[in-house]
Amino acid sequence: MKHQVFSEELVAQVVDELKVANLEQATIGEVLLVASRLEELTGIPFIRMDQGSPGLPANRIGIEAEKAALDRGVGSQYPAAAGVAELKAAASRFVKAFVDIDISPAACVPTTGSVASSFGAFIASTQRIPGKDKVLFIDPGFPIQKSQLRIIGVKWEWFDIYHYRGEALRAKMEEYLSKGDIAAIVYSNPNNPAWICLEDSELKIIGELATRYDAVVMEDMAYFCMDFRRDMGKPYEPPYPPTVAKYTDNYVLMLSSSKIFSYAGQRMAVICISDRLFNTYYPALAERYGDSGIFGQTLIASILYMITSGCTASTQYAYAAMLDAAVEGRIDFVADTREYARRAERMKKIFTDNGFHIVYDYDVTQPVGDGFFFTLGYGKLSSGQLLKELLYYGVSSIALGTTGSEQQGVRACTSRMREELYPVMEERMKAFRMDHPLD
């Protein structure tokens, strides 16, 4: 007899009800809906490892600054397309303090979350030079970014970095860049979903190739300073998080408030563009948009403004206040977010004690750290099979296959784990192992 929490029949019924075409290839949103519906029907709680939504309270400094901004009356006026001056200046200071990179306030542009940053940057990057119209993904990565390219009709290339760490990355990237049609290179660091971290040697390779082949590197810093193996996050003090900005001027950094300040609900980020790229003139942009053709100005006025018409003014003041507080040492966002590493360590132990293995388990020189995400495999189960089997035991995740990974397994997120769920998870994973004996 199996020890499942939810019967296969009930799960199939819910999948059919929600019109999920293929559970083994379900998106994050579809998995979330299935898990929520099963909870609703049965009252049995899920171990929610699907959506990467913050699991900590929103930062109070941001909340109070946003309230104060609204009380000052900022809600009655449209914010400037380029962003409020206070946030642009705060972002410039923050990048200097925590990354040791000089970017002028003008080139720090508020966006409604990093999703808007990447959408705008994809458009500008793939339109700036005729013939350079593809995007290269260093996967695994964030599936939504490929969905954005579908919307604008841009093609992409991709490869799973699993077998191409260290110096092996150079030859693999040149396979694509040497064709001359790659406009942008995208990755997250730390990585969503694998939590691997690109090391300085690898970022140097990416930067050198981006310069040689004139590709814009889009570095997603959603999990900023959350490589907890090193004591980062002290303003103006090394070690600083590794960044491609040390090795090329062809970069944009996407810096979100969602995870580091748990301010996800207010949809706020900044895209920090190298001053050289920000001020570069591209005839193709000038011709298309009838504007200056300057990369940064076109991105702001002719692209981002058409998508969101600017960002909520009060939230810009909130983000500015949090960034300034971090620079001044009044917020220790690394200490706040370290809770995710503690959760990951406990969750990983429960899984590995019951026959699971960590899929992306090593960086170039050291084991992968604990943080917001980790990856799990089990025996010979495929990604989709493992996702489905875990659902029967009340654990939701997403299949690695949906992230551009060629490895078999699932992504687990730590953000929604609660203290009372650890014994529940342990009981369910013991049952899972009983029902799935390993050879």
TrEMBL record:
CDD domains: AAT_like (cd00609). Pfam families: Aminotran_1_2. It comes from the Bacteria. Coiled coil: none annotated. GO terms for molecular function: pyridoxal phosphate binding; transaminase activity. Keywords: Aminotransferase, Pyridoxal phosphate, Transferase. Residues 63-418 form the Aminotransferase class I/classII large domain. GO terms for biological process: amino acid metabolic process. SUPFAM superfamilies: PLP-dependent transferases. Its cofactor is pyridoxal 5'-phosphate. PANTHER family: ASPARTATE AMINOTRANSFERASE. Belongs to the class-I pyridoxal-phosphate-dependent aminotransferase family. This is Pyridoxal phosphate-dependent aminotransferase. It comes from Phocaeicola barnesiae.
